[in-house]
Amino acid sequence: MLAIRLKSTFIILALFASIAVVGQPVSRENFNKGWRFALGDVKQAQEKNFNDSGWRELSLPHDWSIEGSFDVKNPATNQGGALPTGIAWYRKTFIVPASSAGKNILIEFDGVHRDSEVWLNGKSLGKRPNGYISFQYNLNPHLKFGEANVIAVRVNNSEQPASRWYSGSGIYRNVWLETKDVIAVAHWGTFITTPKISAESATVSIKTTVSNFKSPGATADIRTIIYDPKGKVVGSVDSKNTSLGGTNTEISQELQISNPQLWDVENPHLYKAITTIFSDDKVIDTYQTTFGIRYFKFESATGFYLNGKPLKLLGVNNHHDLGALGAAFNVRAAERQLEMLKAMGCNALRTAHNPPAPELLDLCDKMGFLVMDEAFDMWKKKKNAKDYHLDFAEWSQRDIEDMVKRDRNHPSIILWSIGNEIREQFDSTGIAIAKDLVGYVKRLDPTRPVTSALTETIPEKNMIYQSGALDVLSFNYKHADYADLPNRFPGQKFISGETASALQTRGHYEMPSDSMRIWPKDGKTKFTEGNADFTASAYDNSYAYWGSPHETVWNVVKKLPHMAGLFVWSGFDYLGEPHPYPYPARSSYYGIIDLAGFPKDVYYMYQSEWTDKPGLHIFPHWNWEAGKTVDVWAYYNNADEVELFLNGKSLGVKRKEGDQIHIMWRIPFQPGTLKAVSRKDGKIVLSREIKTAGKPARIELTADRKKIRSDGEDLSFVSVRVLDKDGNLVPNANNLIKFNIKGDGFIAGVDNGYQASMESFKAPYRMAYNGKCLAIIQSKEKSGKIRLQATSEGLRPMSITIKTK
Ligand code: GAL
């Protein structure tokens, strides 16, 4: 839901040059700038008069963990990313003008990890243990209008280990300051549904909760205007002279829209509702809600349907971190991830295992992704000693209700998940908790099905299933049971919540090696050095003992109509959970795309299966010892066959037979040029070449965008490739690349995708990993130019210019 309070044009000049004056009449303002930060616990830091002049100045979103150094002794352990956690403070001084007196001033945090307490002028406003939930406080009780006020936030992420993945630490999402009239749309106060949809018309039902701090019985006029995707007014409804009760009153409105443009994954048409509240004919509030018109269902025998048409959910799981940026949310970084997934053919996302930044859901609405929005990774039974199980009893109802209230207008969301692989699955207490959680969700949103990611496929043993509360059964892994699910769970609807958990590193193929070992399936023996025979189809055979090769599980889900789809574990590598490797491994190996955003080979497997785009991808690289036997794999689509040539000599034509997802040639290595040609009806569709590379000779820089916004937030992702003198990628190059940046931008992060790199994500240098690394460039708030130079000993340097506007 993009529910924003429209910003008034009313401008007030700062009373004090260095202190922001905020809180303009009826507004929602970004409150990210001008914070001060101190790492460590600081006594009295909540007090208004505390002297924070020595503290570091920064803008939010901010994650202090990502700035730290990896250490095996960090209490989050390498499962949590091996970065420091701890306690820290944020403070901000601001003025709300005297002219706003009588208004309600509210602060909203999209997410603080974790266990935050917020004070205004030394008075506690409240605590929020959950690090992934959005929350709001009313500042009025302790606010001084027209004077300096101090907001102080203590963040306590010191209790560790608290997470099975990297959480990040700090105020890592946006903060907003709202000024509202005493009568206004309440927090997350709209709920828009479209109960009847046909080609000719759609019924739009709008429930608006109006908060009334004036006096019980006060009246207001409420108007909702609907704008179509092009911004044209297509409907309007008025509720005149509405009598408002004590605090919150729900107003129901309904209207019809002709010829609705439906939201779907290819054409994600979005409508807007603008709610205006009038008092004595004066506008006292405006509130925008973005929504979509679409209908969907899960069928037990035939899977998922969007707007009446069957659609397999081709999804991935992602955690919330953004690689080198850590947990600090950035819209462009998230958008880039979704762009890459979309190009792979992905149409669905599971927000493992927590509610995401609200802007991620806005992106899913805009870009056409179907979302499973998930609340928890544990209930009362722990997964880590200090995790959320300690807060579950007190906070879970509030947390899950807030997730639903915040997110229920997003057309992208098609499933709520009450939890991932919850331990109570195996315990009778799971029955009551599941019923309660589903009840809380359904009271706020009766329109969407509720699921939980389960692992137990024996019905009698699965207590969450036994609760009878779930609408859709989501099973993680266990692909061998999928065919039999309709027999075991008659009449139920199914999806796979996690698949694969296969280990890969981008561009690294040698076996045995640190990164490609076989993980024994009994789960008891430690993983061992793997298959020493490099030829044994090595590229997709290393996976968690509970998982499977990517191809195996996709072949199962693809063929079973009752499986509505799948969410691969995982779309991107993420910080933490470097199964099964010990420190210094500190980020996961499961991604289809690495942490830096470079696709691994399996990306092209999914692309060949999930899109109609002509595709041809061959691998591995072509730098081996003479005489070594090498398997060459190809993924292709929109073609009948592929022919492979080595130094101009044909190695034969192959085509996928039966269940095959890739084709393979086993050949003795000879240096030179490996070329693949795909053909359809005898005509060439695509050709690809890989050449044996010589020594590293030069650096190549490529920016994903050479013009970015000068808003201080936009990013350009600059990929570095180490090339030989003829322009071939040197596949094992690990040269140290140094960055020098000038002008109106800065380096927000560097990475190379290597899961055990101990280099800092914030350093102005990075070693190449298998020939590649990345610099993330962020704009400053100034139009101009950024010049990035990359140098490395013995290599020809390169510079690139990015414009900011
Ligand atoms: C699953 C779990 C995920 C992740 C994955 C790794 O069991 O739900 O969070 O840990 O395993 O294979």
Please report which band the strand proportion falls in: under 5%, 5-15%, 15-25%, 25-35%, 35-45% or over 45%.
35-45%
Mean pLDDT: 93
Strand order of the largest sheet: 23-24-25-26-27-28-29-30
Specify the CATH class of the largest domain. Alpha Beta
What compounds sit in this structure? beta-D-galactopyranose
Instruction: Tell me how many strands there are.
Output: 46
Biggest sheet details: 8 strands, parallel, barrel
Q: Using the CA coordinates, give the radius of gyration.
A: 27 Å
CATH fold group of the largest domain: TIM Barrel
Q: How much helix is in the residues? A: 10-25%
In DSSP terms (H or I, runs of 4 or more residues), the helix count works out at 8
Taken together, the total number of domains comes to 5
Structure description:
- There is one protein chain.
- The protein is mainly beta and 805 residues long.
- It has five domains: 9-60 and 86-157, Galactose-binding domain-like (Jelly Rolls); 183-291, Immunoglobulin-like (Sandwich); 296-589, TIM Barrel, CATH 3.20.20.80; 615-620 and 622-691, Immunoglobulins (Immunoglobulin-like, Sandwich), CATH 2.60.40; 698-804, Immunoglobulin-like (Sandwich).
- 11% of the residues lie in helices and 38% in strands.
- It is built from eight helices and 46 strands.
- An eight-stranded parallel beta barrel has the order 23-24-25-26-27-28-29-30, surrounded by four helices. Strands 2, 4, 5, 6, 8, 9 and 11 form a seven-stranded mixed sheet that branches. A five-stranded antiparallel sheet has the order 1-19-18-15-16, with no helix packed on it.
- α3 runs parallel beside α4 (429-444).
- It is globular and about 85 Å long.
- Mean pLDDT is 93; it is low at 1-18 and 511-537.
- The structure holds beta-D-galactopyranose.
- The site of beta-D-galactopyranose (GAL) has 11 residues, from loops.
- Residues 164, 352, 420-421, 476, 498, 501, 544, 547, 569, 577 line the site of beta-D-galactopyranose.
